[in-house]
Predict the 3D structure of the following.
Amino acid sequence: MNKSGVTVSPECIEKFNELKLGKSIKYIIYKLSDDYKEIVVEEASTDAEWEHFQEKIVNAKASYKGKEGKGPRYAVYDFQYELEGGEGTRNKIVFISWSPDDGTLVFPRMTYASSKEALKNALNGLGAEVQANNEDEIEYSTILKDISKGKLVA
């Protein structure tokens, strides 16, 4: 439990360990339960298409007291990329916190922000973290440039 009182479902850790150790899962999307008391797995997928993942994140919804808006989400994505100079292929497990600036209800946004550390602390083995608040920040090339520290094959 953390300062928001939100707990992390054991399934969140189990799925993360499957991604980390088994490498069959490409990404996991996490959300807060409908009562905002627990972080749960919304989806775990083997789909390697970034556009499919991005679409799910960007189109997520959240509701509170009968109102609906854009939905913040947490996600873990297993990035694979080539380094410049023939240094080889690298994998990095990236934690993504998606909280759109526009169209998000206040309560969900605040609860996601205050609960993020609980999930991050439960997931051992994260390689990087990205905070995205608009669609430009969740583009594959933007995140890859950030996590690779500019050492990509051009």
The chain has a mean pLDDT of 89.
